[in-house]
Amino acid sequence: MIRLVWMAALVLAACATAPAVPQNQPAPVCDYFPLAVGDRWVYDGPARPDGSREPITIAITGKKDGFFEQTGGQLISCDSEGLRDQKRLLLQGPIERGHTWKSVVSVGSVEQYEIVDVDGTVTVPAGTFGNTVTTRAKQRIDAQRTLINETTYAPGTGMIRIATVLQEGDREIPQIEIVLRKFTPAAPDESGKAK
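Below the sequence we write its predicted structure tokens.
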């Protein structure tokens, strides 16, 4: 019995003196959205009236002001707090169902985020992805309407599905759905690392 207590005390002492994880280490959320110049995603965009879907191509084209620049000039980065664009925190750790946060995108606009699914399996035209994380963002438009955006991320790939609905009272009216058709990671440099 004394030996067991002594071993438990040693374990607790070791835990108490273990070095803390440095604050500048990337958050685990960074695994859910690769960022390297040259990464490229092709999505099936919103459905047209004839049922076809227009392709949307997003590529990381360079770096600017500490962010990675995407097609169209949008800036995105991942740091110890999470995945963000210029205005909002898109995915924040810990990656746990029920985790919530808010992003103030302007004086009169606040987006409320929640992780609604973890360890999911999602199939899109690009394939079947496991260990996915899905967030739900809500933004009130007016007293009767709220825009709801669900985004699913796959590790090593990024966003694989985005679905938006308009909530009016108890009704949810689908707006758009965008799904990943193809992801092409950046070519490695001479050292074998992504740029």
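Residues 2-17 form the longest helix (16 residues).
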